[in-house]
Design brief:
alpha+beta, 6-stranded antiparallel sheet, 31 strands
Length: about 575
């Protein structure tokens, strides 16, 4: 059975594409001898795997959960007739961690970083008839050189670390383009007057005309053209109708980008502006209390990869049914189709990067962080649902007492703001801030009365930041200056063991009844909703993940509690909404 045959990049669609998901030949190369033995020249590999699922997953058909140092993939394909006479691009959604790609026995490209897409033009390396595609991936998980997120560095899963992912875990596909084509674009919108501005990158299109057309519910709402004079061209298209993107509702314009030389890309955008101040975050001029949920997007049968596109969408719908209006995409770069569904549904998201696993004591660690972070930002920039960036999560000091390199966080923050000044950036969620637009903390105090006191203003009306019990050792290095919005970006994590054998990990003492769960959830959540200085919260978490048992849903996506009862608590009016 083939999985994920839908178009993998909804924000920029072409009609002429060819999906390479499905059965591939496969071989684990733990000794890393395949390069020396020239595996790319072999006529076959020893096993089979179902791409795009990682070999650790059940859906891959391999289910090898021990450490895997290196893997090889091989498959044959014949191009569709529609590709004849065109340039051909080979796309990989994500390959963990370092990939080398061979076509018909020749190395055609490589990529470092396990979470972001890469593209290789293979026009000159294709042959008429059957082609052989081979991929080699290395994944030195314990090196501490590169980000690995929540992948366990021990043999088995433990605590809040889970089954590893190696090799291909997002869609592999090809598309045909004309001699001059659109390589990418950035979309920005304005409300007053309503308009969309694009910065369009092209290859081989100098002298052609770019035409942009917009539509809402099928009705034309704007058109503009510009002559391509260089590799990047800007164009602003005024909109004849204003339909702002709304939280909880969405509302998207359709858009086509057409080059006179024949390339056409179909896209969409949301008419959405983000702003922030001391009180909170404004979407299109109105304060919106962020009722976020922590979503790690792990799956019992696919690990990093959802079993279906419907499942990605269902995770958002389940969250919304419980009253949440957004998510922190936690310690992972999610599949593009997740963001597509968030755009359509009006579901706010924070873009994160899986920084855990990387040692950032030295400034040189940026070599392994910045390229992937830039690629993630470039991939997701155009999504209206994405309302903020958070490149790091809990950048702990090290067990030997050495500190992280503050300049790493500062450099990444400044780079983020240079690439996208319109969205807020939190430098590192939950620890101590070096440079940030929004002040946030993580607080897993389980006693509602004690929890509320952490956010009760003192006699001078100031928040008592630095006195919360989880990170008291940061009180001298992180103080709230009362000038920024305040976000409790992790709380709750109420442990409720539901059908798990063996280790069950969570925060605090497990509740013993549904009544106790709702009393604790209401107490903790009311403390934040009723506080006029809190602009958002993020509840931990949407689902259980393996042994971590603090989700509102089980790992296989069954509600532990009635969704409407959770919604009654979560959706209550917040103080900043008065």
């Amino acid at each position: 059975m083939d999985y994920h045959t839908e178009y993998p990049r909804p924000i920029a669609v072409r009609e002429d594409y060819f999906c390479l998901n499905g059965e591939w030949e496969f071989e684990i190369d733990n000794a890393r001898v395949g390069l020396e033995k020239k595996f790319w020249e072999r006529k076959s590999l020893t096993e089979k795997i179902n791409v795009p699922f990682c070999p650790e997953s059940r859906l891959s058909g391999v289910a090898h959960t021990d450490f895997i140092n290196a893997v090889w993939y091989r498959r044959t394909f014949t191009l569709p007739d529609t590709f004849a006479g065109k340039r051909v691009l080979l796309h990989f959604g994500a390959v963990d961690n370092e990939a080398t790609v061979y076509l018909n026995g020749k190395a055609v490209g490589s990529h470092k970083g396990g979470y972001t897409p890469f593209t290789i033009e293979v026009t000159e390396d294709l042959i008429f008839g059957e082609n052989v595609l081979t991929v080699y991936a290395e994944d030195d998980l314990r090196s501490a050189k590169f980000p690995t997120g929540k992948q366990s560095q021990k043999l088995n899963s433990y605590g809040c670390f889970y089954t590893r992912t190696t090799g291909i875990w997002q869609t592999v596909w090809m598309e045909a383009v004309p001699a001059g084509y659109i390589t990418g674009f950035y979309t920005d919108t304005s409300l007053c007057p309503p308009a969309v501005t694009l910065r369009v990158r092209t290859d081989g299109a100098e002298g052609q005309t770019l035409t942009v057309r917009t539509f809402f519910d099928g009705k034309p709402t704007g058109e503009g053209s510009v002559r391509i004079g260089s590799a990047q061209t800007a164009i602003t298209v005024p909109l004849t109708e204003s339909h702002p993107w709304q939280v909880g509702k969405g509302g998207l314009y359709d858009m086509t980008l057409t080059l006179s030389g024949g390339d056409t890309v179909t896209s969409y955008f949301g008419l959405r502006e983000v702003a922030w101040d001391r009180k909170g975050i404004r979407i299109n001029g109105e304060y919106v209390f962020g009722r976020f949920i922590l979503d790690q997007s792990f799956f019992p049968d696919g690990i990093y990869t959802a079993p279906s596109d419907d499942r990605l969408k269902a995770d958002i719908l389940d969250s919304m049914a419980m009253g949440f209006n957004g998510a922190r995409m936690h310690e992972k770069v999610f599949e593009p189709r997740y963001l597509y569904h968030a755009d359509k549904l009006g579901y706010m998201i924070w873009g994160e990067y899986p920084n855990w696993g990387q040692d950032i004591r030295e400034y040189s660690s940026l070599e392994y962080f910045l390229p992937g972070w830039r690629e993630a930002m470039e991939r997701d920039y155009n999504h209206p649902a994405l309302i903020g960036w958070c490149p790091f999560n809990e950048t702990w000091d090290n067990p030997d007492g050495s500190r992280q390199c503050d300049e790493v966080l500062r450099t990444v923050y400044k780079t983020t703001k240079a690439l996208d000044p319109a969205r807020p950036c939190i430098d590192t969620s939950g620890n101590y801030h070096v440079e940030t637009d929004i002040f946030d903390v993580h607080d897993y105090e389980q006693d509602p009365e004690k929890f509320a006191k952490h956010y009760t203003p003192d006699a001078e009306g100031k928040m008592p930041a630095g006195e919360y019990p989880l990170y008291p050792w940061f009180s001298s290095r992180q103080t709230y200056d009362e000038k920024q919005a305040f976000f409790v970006s992790e709380y709750g994590g109420i442990k409720w063991v539901c059908g798990t054998t063996g280790e069950a990990w969570g925060y605090g003492k497990s509740v013993q009844s549904e009544e106790e769960f709702f009393a604790r959830l209401r107490g903790l959540t009311d403390a934040l909703l009723d506080n006029p200085r809190v602009c958002a919260f993020c509840y931990t978490q949407l689902t259980d993940v393996e042994q971590e048992q603090n989700g509102l849903l089980t790992y296989d996506r069954r509600f532990k509690f009635p969704a409407e009862k959770i919604r009654e608590i979560v959706a209550k009016k917040a103080a900043i909404e008065d």
